[in-house]
Design a protein that fits this description.
With about 775 residues, the protein is an alpha/beta fold. It contains 29 helices and 27 strands. The structure holds adenosine-5'-triphosphate (ATP). It catalyses: Couples ATP hydrolysis with the unwinding of duplex DNA by translocating in the 3'-5' direction; ATP + H2O = ADP + phosphate + H(+).
């Protein structure tokens, strides 16, 4: 190899979209370039405008644009492919620069801003002559043909000065053009072609953020400390730039499409969160699709890479549901080396609690699990037998789960002292005494049946783990007291106890907003406090189970180690705008005493506005849904430029309010409209049908190219029958249920990548932004 070649992120994305014949020639070009960049067939030449940018020939029509990026530590010259262009789109003014905030290499193409803006700014682009092809074909037309002067438009970014844009990190060559932009369309066009930080800044400013807000939310998180003279050190800049190294594997990468992009590429803001050394628990928050899961996965990979050799599993990756755990496992296995992957325990939170209980249970004493609904029936029986009228079964069940189990209250005295913030109705001491007695009867009854709920299991597991952590602490203190010697005199010096350690060195939690206090206590006890102990990804706007926790009260102190992601990689700005309205106006916590918001949440992707469709009745709603699905299918299966046809399976989904409705939709679509479906279950999609159908809960963490939400009617969303009972008796619970329902719609709407359609019949849901 006489040259090392890397591929700029934007160039990689452009290549995915090219015809396979161009891709094949591109592989050959890379192969040739790496062995001899000066080979005459490549015709490598600098462009006139910028001595750092070169053009080389891929075939008769396509050119690679490359930047020289110094020499590697092994003495091999480094080159970065910044773009692949048709030769008629190559002009002399193309440049590469090093960004003053991120220190990354940026490729700047003024051609992307459109003729009107260029003309208003008085810029004319010069086509780069291409002698070799000029001999065979006529000289290509200039990129910009003079046109009548374009009327001056009022600049869109009023209130921003060139100095502001420069300070924020907009690339120099685009500052004046950005301030010339006069319409939203022009701004979108500029953003689409701009380097990443510039695009984010301009999107922020364009959506109304102030210069200070952009600086705080976008610029500062992306900033890197740069040495004087960094502007000229391309080798150092290359090491800070997100690139794919071009080796023989590039063929597979390109063939897989952008599915693999996240594996090689982390945005600098994401990378910082992954790579920081945290002195204790850390949290990343951010709206849907901002890459929290990706960050959590990369964090696991980084922690695993730093482990000393061994065969144990010192890292736990956990989340709330079973199907998400399977998804995390498969994503992680494509990111990590199998040997390192073997050092990661991947379990969903209830599975983890069960393994603790199994380990601690005497043979034959395990209890079987009972659903919340069935347990509530047992409580109803107890209340009926005691002729108890003062409190309803739902109220007491909630009190039990939220307060008694939630705070691990073991005695009546503890319950007397317990804080009941957020529970609405106050309870006097005699009332608490009576409730405690009833709940005791209830748990004894469950016990007698050999059953327990998931929440009880979690609470018992937490207690076992806390005892274990306590023993570890006592031993460590004793060891310190006796100067680190052997522990022969300690009471419990059984061989089992001698080797008891914390179960994990690092724990990473995804979808953390849905974990209960008992889950947190268990996790806290499983890992020693200290560097890199807990890493948490969460978004409280997506809390869809009735769980509330204040992390600082369960021993998880985040202070100073919280970060936020604001750029969505999944959803278009059009979808995001509407989805954000569903949760606007409500207040969200930050898993602690502070609040969380979607401020600065934005997307660089654009697409059609979401459709809101009022239908006459159920039959009409299903018929219109079937038509939409067929149109989506036709669009997805449209043959690509190289003749390939995509398989539409699993790219479209229908989201409904409950399981019964899911069944009805599946059978109506199949019987009346010939559309096959697969139902989303706890285990993932069941069946081979093309369109996935599931309840809002099942869509958590997933994403689809096109998504329909149906049955979004008042009475269903929120579920009136369930809520009415609380409206008068327990207003706080009522508010919590409303919030849960609102969040479910928000989660569902933000699963769509590029098309969202929401329909209803009757009165529309009050949550819809109509
Ligand atoms: N830096 C990146 N470059 C390209 N794609 C990215 C990047 N980060 C994330 N993505 C993509 O964005 C999508 C959303 O990412 P991810 O699932 O991690 O988001 P999230 O914040 O966990 O979302 P949610 O809260 O909705 O579950 C995924 O398809 C992921 O591959």
């Amino acid at each position: 190899m006489t040259a090392r070649l890397s591929l700029y992120q934007k160039a990689e994305n452009e290549l995915y979209k090219m015809e396979s014949s161009v891709k094949t020639k591109f592989y050959d070009f890379c192969h040739q370039f790496r062995s001899d960049p000066d080979h005459p067939s490549l015709d490598l030449k600098p462009l006139k405008g910028d001595g750092r940018i070169f053009r080389a020939k891929i075939d008769r029509s396509y050119r690679a644009l490359l930047a020289r990026a110094g020499v590697g530590v092994d003495g091999i010259p480094q080159w970065l492919i910044v773009a692949v262009r048709h030769r008629k789109d190559v002009y002399e003014e193309l440049t590469v620069a090093i960004n003053r905030i991120t220190g990354e290499i940026e490729f700047v193409d003024l051609g992307v801003v459109g003729q009107s803006v260029l003309q208003r700014a008085g810029l004319q682009l010069t086509p780069a002559p291409d002698e070799q092809t000029a001999a065979v074909e006529p000289t290509p037309a200039p990129v910009v043909t003079p046109e009548p002067a374009v009327a001056a438009a009022e600049p869109l970014l009023v209130g921003c000065t060139p100095a502001d844009l420069s300070r924020l990190g907009v690339t120099d060559a685009l500052i004046d053009l950005a301030l010339t932009v006069g319409t939203d369309e022009e701004l979108d066009q500029l953003i689409a072609g701009a380097p990443r930080l510039t695009a984010e800044i301009l999107t922020g400013l364009g959506s109304g953020m102030s210069v200070d807000e952009v600086e705080r939310e976008i610029t500062q998180p992306a900033a890197t400390e740069l040495e004087p003279g960094f502007e000229d050190d391309m080798a150092a800049a290359l090491s800070r730039t997100a690139v794919t190294t071009v080796d023989d594997d590039i063929r597979n990468v390109l063939a897989e499409g952008d599915f693999r992009a996240w594996k090689v590429y982390l945005h600098p803001t994401q990378r910082k969160i992954v790579e920081r050394n945290y002195g204790g628990p850390a949290r990343v928050s951010g709206g849907p699709g901002t890459g929290k899961t990706i960050v959590a996965l990369h964090r696991v990979a980084r922690l695993a890479a730093a482990l000393p050799p061994g065969h144990n599993k010192p890292i736990l990756l956990t989340t709330y549901t079973k199907n998400l755990t399977a998804d995390l496992r498969s994503r992680l296995s494509s990111l990590m080396d199998p040997v390192l992957l073997g050092r990661v325990d991947i379990k969903h939170i209830d599975q983890l609690a069960q393994s603790v209980l199994n380990e601690n249970a005497a043979p034959g004493s395990q209890r079987s699990l009972i659903s919340g609904e069935a347990a509530l029936d047992v409580l109803r029986e107890v209340l009926f037998e005691h002729d108890e009228q003062r409190w309803g079964a739902e109220f007491l069940f909630d009190e039990w789960e939220q307060i008694v189990l939630g705070q691990s209250l073991a005695t009546r005295q503890d319950y007397f002292k317990a804080r009941r913030a957020g529970m609405g109705r106050a309870l006097s001491r005699p009332e608490r005494a009576a409730i405690w007695k009833l709940l005791e009867q209830f748990t004894l009854r469950l016990n007698g049946l050999g059953r327990e709920t998931w929440a009880q299991a979690a609470e018992r597991a937490a207690r076992y783990e806390m005892e274990r952590a306590h023993k570890i602490k006592v031993r460590a203190e004793h060891k310190a007291d006796i100067g680190g010697g052997d522990l022969v005199h300690l009471d419990d010096n059984s061989s089992a106890m001698r080797y008891v350690r914390h179960r994990y060195q690092h724990i990473v939690v995804d979808e953390a907003q849905d974990l209960s206090p008992a889950h947190w206590k268990m996790l806290r006890a499983m890992v020693a406090s200290g560097e890199g102990d807990l890493f948490i990804a969460s978004d409280t706007h997506q809390r869809i189970y009735d769980r509330q926790v204040t992390l600082s009260t369960v021993g998880v102190q985040i202070r100073g180690r919280a970060s936020k992601l604001t750029l969505s990689y999944r959803t278009t700005q059009e979808i995001l705008d509407q989805a954000a309205k569903v949760v606007s106006g409500a207040t969200y916590d930050d898993l602690d005493d502070g609040t969380d918001s979607l401020d600065g949440y934005h997307s660089l992707l654009h697409g059609p506005a979401p459709e809101f469709v009022a239908c006459a009745d159920w039959t009409d709603e299903i018929a219109q849904l079937a038509d939409a699905l067929k149109q989506w299918r036709a669009a997805i299966t449209q043959p690509g430029a190289d003749g390939t046809v995509r398989d539409p399976s699993g790219t479209m989904a229908v989201c409904v309010a409950d399981g019964e409705m899911a069944g009805r939709v599946a059978s109506d679509l199949a019987m009346k409209h010939g559309i096959t479906t697969a139902t989303l279950t706890k285990e993932g999609p069941q069946g081979n049908g093309e369109v996935h159908i599931g309840t809002m809960h099942r869509f958590k963490g997933l994403e689809y190219q096109k998504l329909a939400i149906i049955g979004a009617s008042d009475g269903i969303l929120p579920r009136a029958a369930l809520l009415e009972q609380y409206a008068k008796t327990d207003p706080t619970r009522y508010e919590r249920e409303l919030m849960k329902s609102r969040n479910q719609l928000f989660v569902a709407a933000t699963r769509a990548r590029d098309a969202l359609r929401i329909s209803w019949h009757g009165k529309p849901s009050p949550f819809l932004p109509l």
